[in-house]
């Protein structure tokens, strides 16, 4: 029996494309591995408390914490970090659903990742190296080659660098673009392209879920 850690980051629930893609990946994973365990962390609903990382780093380097710091209780910060790190390192696979906000990752995603990066084992790539990670990504506009916003997606390269290169995980991506077309004036002509992008991403997410489950259970691909 294996464990899938699912981490959602969208501040939306209904209508969230990144969550829908993660649903597709999870459903495919469950279909191949019905006895598997899914552990959930919802950063969109329950962000890491403010100041956890600051407290941890201040203590590590022996700096003096400001007396009016938002989160200066070291024991509490360590407890939060231990929970985050334990569930991440215990997972056989990770499913991370991330929307693009303001051309990057939202502060609540960065806060969670900052806690992961306090762990020296993860930093050396030894604790989770080789483990599969599925990224389900949603972008409101178009950021591909030749588009006006090419190069403005600062989230995906960062996520790939941290999880793929620092943590040395096996990263799989399912990406949907133009997700804001149906609700944004001036993007009406892109609605069909948005639907096609989401449909393809849902298919990719499902295939990634199947592939990861079969790899973990030793089933034929």
TrEMBL record:
The reaction(s) annotated as catalysed by this protein in its Swiss-Prot or TrEMBL entry are: N,N-dimethyl-1,4-phenylenediamine + anthranilate + 2 NAD(+) = 2-(4-dimethylaminophenyl)diazenylbenzoate + 2 NADH + 2 H(+); 2 a quinone + NADH + H(+) = 2 a 1,4-benzosemiquinone + NAD(+)
UniProt cross-references to InterPro entries, sorted A to Z: Flavodoxin_fold, Flavoprotein-like_sf, FMN-dep_NADH:Q_OxRdtase_AzoR1, NADH:quinone_OxRdtase_FMN_depd
Which keywords does this Swiss-Prot/TrEMBL entry list? Flavoprotein, FMN, NAD, Oxidoreductase
Instruction: Kindly indicate whether the keyword NAD belongs to this entry.
Output: yes
**What family, per the record?**
Belongs to the azoreductase type 1 family.
Report quaternary structure and partners.
Homodimer.
Q: Please give the function described in this protein's UniProt entry.
A: Quinone reductase that provides resistance to thiol-specific stress caused by electrophilic quinones.
Protein known as: FMN dependent NADH:quinone oxidoreductase
Q: Which organism is it from?
A: Kribbella amoyensis
The gene is azoR
């Amino acid at each position: 029996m294996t464990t899938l850690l699912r981490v959602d980051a969208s501040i939306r629930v209904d209508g969230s494309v990144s969550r829908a893609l993660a649903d597709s990946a999870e459903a495919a994973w469950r279909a191949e591995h019905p006895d598997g365990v899914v552990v959930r962390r919802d950063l969109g609903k329950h962000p890491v408390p403010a100041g956890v990382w600051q407290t941890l780093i201040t203590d590590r380097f022996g700096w003096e914490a400001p007396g009016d710091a938002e989160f200066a209780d070291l024991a509490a910060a360590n407890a939060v970090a231990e929970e985050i790190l334990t569930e991440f390192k215990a997972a056989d696979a990770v499913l991370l659903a991330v929307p693009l906000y303001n051309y990057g990752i939202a502060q609540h995603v960065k806060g969670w990742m900052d806690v992961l990066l306090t762990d020296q084992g993860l930093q050396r790539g030894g604790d989770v190296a080789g483990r599969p990670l599925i990224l389900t990504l949603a972008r409101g506009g178009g950021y591909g080659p030749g588009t006006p916003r090419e190069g403005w997606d600062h989230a995906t390269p960062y996520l790939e660098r941290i999880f793929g290169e620092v943590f040395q995980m096996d990263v799989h991506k399912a990406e949907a673009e133009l997700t804001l077309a149906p609700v944004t004036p001036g993007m009406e002509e892109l609605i069909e392209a948005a639907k096609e992008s989401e449909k393809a991403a849902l298919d990719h997410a499902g295939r990634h879920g199947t592939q990861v489950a079969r790899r973990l259970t030793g089933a034929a691909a």
